[in-house]
């Protein structure tokens, strides 16, 4: 508690850990590359420097506020300082902006413009380091790296994976993997949180748009889209809408304009997952077997578990993810539906996630050598496709999904947010269909943005303990407690990205807690507005279990044995 | 894993109580043993100390003293500190490079006999220009006398 004087204006501070937060609260926007409120303070980029009343400069991100402190944020000295730093960064940067995919979304470009860099007095240093585009999800271009270390901290502090770090030193300093290997050769889980924080084009989503265009133009292909829950509350941000704005109808309309033949909601796949996973859990609780059951729908978590906890793989649900369940079901259904035509069915999943690209390419997710989901397009890629085709997103009239999978449940939609899988499973157990029961579940502790959440539910006189973690580092801490016997759970839901899929790396940037919270609110709004709350009440689901799934329900499960 | 090197590393790790704070000491001992830091052993150390492999790579590339590539039987260090430099250490380096077929980017001979590198100062300025071969100091060298030493070592080494 206290008062600071910022640019001559008195500003009160309370909980703020650093001057930068106080300055931003006062409505002054200081540029930063290396500061992210969710990550540790690094103080490397030196853009947030302020001047105190004695004329010395200090980094506002790493200086705690003190009562009576007086700082200036935009003196001539500081302006000169910032320009110089940017000139030096740019002298060392691949400045081919016109062909850079990050152009227009690049923080380096944005800040250089804001600070007013008009000329770079230093010669350009041409670095020609190899670009790593060998993996399925992330492209790493070290020539565009400005060494802010954001990706290093995101990988270590959010995910506890730590495949990136600084190497070499001085002018040879680089951010790289151990032994300079490609990302797919190290323990990268493809979550893409590194690219969420990367200010430049050094870490990018591996784009599959060209493959999508190719399929869309092919007359011999029937292109079927499935749209994940988290996409509808985020894509609007690319078109100037608020985070959390629900745009499902517009997405459907845009996809039709792009030439998709059939458009469905991945929430149907999630409904299938809820039923399969809930029954698997009940089975295990009744047999006291392999508990806790871990969720399996997050591909980054799944890869992490395989690498780090092979001993727990029997505890990970045998369910395939909603994307994969729905992919296989769509293909089965369409094979039956269009027996006679020779069109090839192509499933394109629109996902908030970079790891889903990896998941779709996994060998066990293929049937007869053909992937169940042919390709994955992230929210950001879809936004680019919409822009490339001159579709005015904001003016589109809402359109509805196609049959036979036109119905979804609220339970399926809340899969897009941390705690949603647990809540959906709980809804399946409570057979009483009253609003009070639903509200009870939503208050049980599964909702919210805390890194680890715990809830207890009573089902048929049995207490069921549920743990929810988002961020793999939080998950790892929870697992350690479980392995040490300090915590006992029946079900543990893990999502790798902060906030769950709404905070996925395929989503628009910038992303922070505030944005993620708004997107989560959007998801819950969709649920509230949906007349069908429970997965098993979705008529599309009943039809499936009576139809294509009648005798081969096992296609919904991994055959990992 | 019937590679005896892992047992050697186990011994080293045990000495330091598997404590990750001693990472640099552990790496030094491994390098003393094998003259460089083999990748498989680094993976093993990462697992045992619960440190990310990228962090070990970061430490190993930060310090000039650590090497990630195998070194020759004889490690020659040419001092290029100020005193040695003005007393013509570079011609010595060049004559050795020529003799051994090495360059700025290639430091070790294909027969794994010699590794040639420069150091900033060996602290023996009174003996300039000075080189060390496997930590044995050779004082007041000339291009010719170094080449002679190399030839003797080569006949001994083979």
UniProtKB/TrEMBL annotation, chain A:
Localization annotation: Membrane
Q: Which GO terms describe its cellular component?
A: membrane
Q: Which residues form the signal peptide?
A: none
Q: What is its main location?
A: membrane
Does the UniProt entry include the keyword Nucleotidyltransferase? no
What molecular function terms (GO) are annotated for this protein? 2 iron, 2 sulfur cluster binding; 4 iron, 4 sulfur cluster binding; ferredoxin hydrogenase activity; iron ion binding; NADH dehydrogenase (ubiquinone) activity
* Key word Repeat present: yes
- Enzyme Commission number(s): 1.6.5.3
Q: Which residues form the 4Fe-4S ferredoxin-type domain?
A: 136-166, 179-208
* Keywords linked to the UniProt accession: 2Fe-2S, 4Fe-4S, Iron, Iron-sulfur, Membrane, Metal-binding, NAD, Oxidoreductase, Repeat, Translocase
One GO term (biological process)? ATP synthesis coupled electron transport
PROSITE patterns per UniProt: 4FE4S_FER_1 (PS00198), 4FE4S_FER_2 (PS51379), 4FE4S_HC3 (PS51839), COMPLEX1_75K_1 (PS00641)
Q: Give the family this protein belongs to, as stated in its UniProt record.
A: Belongs to the complex I 75 kDa subunit family.
Protein name in the entry:
Hydrogenase, Fe-only
The source organism is Ruminiclostridium cellobioparum subsp. termitidis CT1112
TrEMBL record, chain B:
- Required cofactor names: [2Fe-2S] cluster
Q: What class of enzyme is it?
A: oxidoreductase
Q: Which Enzyme Commission number(s) are on file for it? A: 1.6.5.3
Keywords, sorted A to Z: 2Fe-2S, Iron, Iron-sulfur, Metal-binding, Oxidoreductase, Ubiquinone
**What's noted on cofactor binding?**
Binds 1 [2Fe-2S] cluster.
* Domain of life assignment: Bacteria
What's one GO MF term for it? 2 iron, 2 sulfur cluster binding
Signal peptide coordinates: none
Binding site residues for [2Fe-2S] cluster? 79, 84, 121, 125
Family listed = Belongs to the complex I 24 kDa subunit family.
Q: What is this protein called?
A: NADH:ubiquinone oxidoreductase 24 kD subunit
Q: Which organism is it from?
A: Ruminiclostridium cellobioparum subsp. termitidis CT1112
């Amino acid at each position: 508690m206290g008062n600071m004087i910022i640019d001559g204006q008195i500003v009160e501070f309370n909980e703020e850990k650093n001057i930068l937060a106080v300055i931003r609260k006062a409505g002054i926007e200081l540029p930063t590359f290396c500061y992210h409120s969710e990550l540790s303070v690094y103080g490397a980029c030196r853009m947030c420097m302020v001047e105190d009343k004695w004329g010395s400069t200090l980094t506002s991100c790493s200086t705690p506020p003190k009562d009576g402190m007086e700082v200036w944020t935009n003196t001539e000295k500081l302006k000169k300082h910032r320009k110089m730093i940017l000139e030096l960064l740019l002298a060392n940067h691949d400045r081919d902006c016109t062909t850079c995919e990050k152009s227009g979304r690049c923080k380096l470009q944005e800040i250089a413009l804001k600070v007013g860099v008009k000329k770079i007095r230093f010669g350009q240093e041409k670095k020609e380091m190899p670009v790593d585009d060998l993996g399925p999800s992330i492209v790493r271009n070290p020539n565009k790296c400005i060494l802010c270390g954001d990706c290093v901290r995101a990988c270590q502090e959010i995910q506890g994976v730590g495949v990136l770090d600084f190497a070499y030193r001085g002018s040879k300093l680089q951010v790289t993997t151990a032994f300079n290997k490609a990302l797919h050769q190290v323990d990268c889980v493809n979550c893409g949180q590194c690219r969420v924080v990367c200010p430049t084009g050094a870490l990018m989503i591996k784009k599959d748009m060209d493959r999508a265009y190719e399929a869309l133009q092919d007359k011999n292909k029937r292109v079927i889209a499935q749209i994940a829950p988290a996409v509808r509350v985020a894509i609007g941000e690319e078109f100037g809408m608020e985070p959390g704005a629900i745009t499902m109808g517009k997405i459907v309309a845009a996809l039709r304009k792009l030439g998709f033949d059939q458009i469905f909601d991945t929430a149907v796949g999630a409904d299938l997952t809820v039923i399969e996973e809930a029954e698997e859990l009940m089975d295990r609780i009744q047999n006291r077997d392999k508990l806790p059951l871990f969720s399996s729908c997050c591909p980054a978590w799944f890869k992490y578990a395989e690498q780090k906890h092979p001993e727990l793989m029997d505890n990970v649900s045998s369910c395939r993810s909603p994307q994969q369940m729905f992919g296989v079901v769509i293909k089965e259904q369409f094979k039956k539906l269009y027996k006679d035509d020779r069109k090839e069915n192509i499933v394109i999943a629109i996902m908030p996630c970079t790891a889903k690209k990896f998941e779709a390419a996994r060998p066990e997710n293929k049937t007869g050598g053909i992937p169940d989901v042919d390709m994955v397009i992230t929210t950001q890629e879809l936004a680019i496709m919409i822009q490339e085709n001159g579709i005015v997103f904001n003016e589109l009239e809402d359109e509805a999904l196609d049959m036979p999978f036109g119905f979804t449940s609220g339970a399926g939609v809340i899969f897009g947010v941390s705690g949603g899988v647990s809540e959906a499973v709980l809804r399946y157990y409570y057979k009483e269909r009253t609003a009070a029961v639903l509200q009870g579940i939503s208050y049980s502790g599964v909702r919210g943005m805390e890194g680890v959440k715990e809830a207890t539910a009573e089902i048929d006189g049995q207490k069921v303990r549920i743990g929810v973690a988002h961020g793999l580092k939080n998950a790892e801490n929870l697992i350690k407690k479980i392995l040490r016997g300090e915590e006992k759970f029946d079900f543990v839901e893990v999502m790798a990205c902060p906030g769950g899929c709404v905070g996925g790396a395929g989503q628009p940037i910038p992303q922070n807690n505030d944005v993620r919270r708004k997107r989560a609110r959007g998801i819950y709004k969709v649920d509230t507005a949906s007349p069908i709350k429970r997965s098993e009440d979705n008529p599309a689901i009943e039809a499936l279990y009576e139809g294509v799934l009648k005798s081969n329900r096992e296609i919904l499960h991994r055959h990992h044995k | 894993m019937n590679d005896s090197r892992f047992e050697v590393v186990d011994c080293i790790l045990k000495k330091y109580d598997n404590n990750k704070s001693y990472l640099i000491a552990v790496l030094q001992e491994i390098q003393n043993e094998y003259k460089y830091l083999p990748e498989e052993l680094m993976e093993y150390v990462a697992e045992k100390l619960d440190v990310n492999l990228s962090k070990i790579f970061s430490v190993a590339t930060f310090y000039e003293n650590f090497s990630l590539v195998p070194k020759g039987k004889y490690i020659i260090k040419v001092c290029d500190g100020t005193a040695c430099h003005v007393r013509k250490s570079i011609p010595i380096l060049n004559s050795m490079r020529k003799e051994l077929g090495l360059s700025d980017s290639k430091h070790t001979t294909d027969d794994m006999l010699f590794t040639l590198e420069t150091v900033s100062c060996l602290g023996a300025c009174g003996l300039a220009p000075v080189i060390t071969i496997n930590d044995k100091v050779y004082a007041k060298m000339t291009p010719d006398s170094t080449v002679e030493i190399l030839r003797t070592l080569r006949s001994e080494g083979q």
